[in-house]
Amino acid sequence: xxxxxxxxxxxxxxxxxxxxxxxxxxxxxxxxxxxxxxxxxxxxxxxxxxxxxxxxxxxxxxxxxxxxxxxxxxxxxxxxxxxxxxxxxxxxxxxxxxxxxxxxxxxxxxxxxxxxxxxxxxxxxxxxxxxxxxxxxxxxxxxxxxxxxxxxxxxxxxxxxxxxxxxxxxxxxxxxxxxxxxxxxxxxxxxxxxxxxxxxxxxxxxxxxxxxxxxxxxxxxxxxxxxxxxxxxxxxxxxxxxxxxxxxxxxxxxxxxxxxxxxxxxxxxxxxxxxxxxxxxxxxxxxxxxxxxxxxxxxxxxxxxxxxxxxxxxxxxxxxxxxxxxxxxxxxxxxxxxxxxxx
Length: 343
Prior knowledge:
- Helices cover about 15% and strands about 25% of the residues.
- By secondary structure, the protein is α/β, with parallel strands linked by helices.
- A hairpin with a 4-residue loop joins strand 32 (about 270-275) and strand 33.
- It has helices at about 1-20, 280-295, 300-310, 310-315, and strands at about 60, 70, 75, 80, 85, 90-95, 100, 105, 110, 115, 130-135, 135-140, 145, 150, 155-160, 165, 175, 180, 185-190, 195-200, 205, 210, 215, 220, 225-230, 235, 240, 245, 250, 255-260, 265, 270-275, 280, 325, 330, 340.
- The strands form five sheets. Strands 1-2-5-8-11-14-19-22-25-28-31 form an eleven-stranded mixed sheet, with no helix packed on it.
- It is built from four helices and 36 strands.
């Protein structure tokens, strides 16, 4: 009966469109009209694997939540898999894991206990977007929000003898530690010569790109729109402000803080950095303060006296030689004989 009603509705729509065309609406064009058909009873047991094939016997309905799982997957009885979520073959899902609707857990993925993936505990009827895992392992007590993709191919190519771009093989994994939170629409690529790693207790904001072979230490904080190129090594307790970009094959030591919109182009030791390229923030502020001493059109004697009064501050910063907007000169012995490079 429902099918007959749908066909009648389609017939009515076609006649309605024909009437419009007969009145001169030539630009109104409908290419395809889909007829809704009743959903088969065993629809929940069907889901294509990554190769696009469908096997009704391979996938089954999970008792707690109604999601779909492969019969070879190892799922703890306390795990919750919502309708629309799929767990593929050889995957391991730990105790008290919550997998939200739209999540796709690829083959051979390990998810630790008490991890929440694309799951809204406040309003279970809110729309849930795809979360895709492949070639990865996820630790315990993690929170992974909507739209996250982990373990996909990295962006790696080389030019062959004919000048054609050829993709490098990306065959390793991505490993997520314990107590990690990953914001919406974040992408973490898997490794090619080493696993991509996110350390314990690291927090990642929305819209973050982490390239292949990247290693991130524990206790780090990555704010929104951070972009990390391939093969970067980041230490522990590093803070990256919004829209920070890091070039490939750069090492960042532990306890580094980068201001928003900074660009890291070479290795950095512990400290605070900012700018393009990123430099130590206190160096930038000190340079401005020293410049202000010599940009008021004062005489050489008054400048020398002012410099002597402020030499204690300059010495504490340990930034001699400094950069100043006048010809190169020397200071007297009262200033420890230091040479100032003045631009």
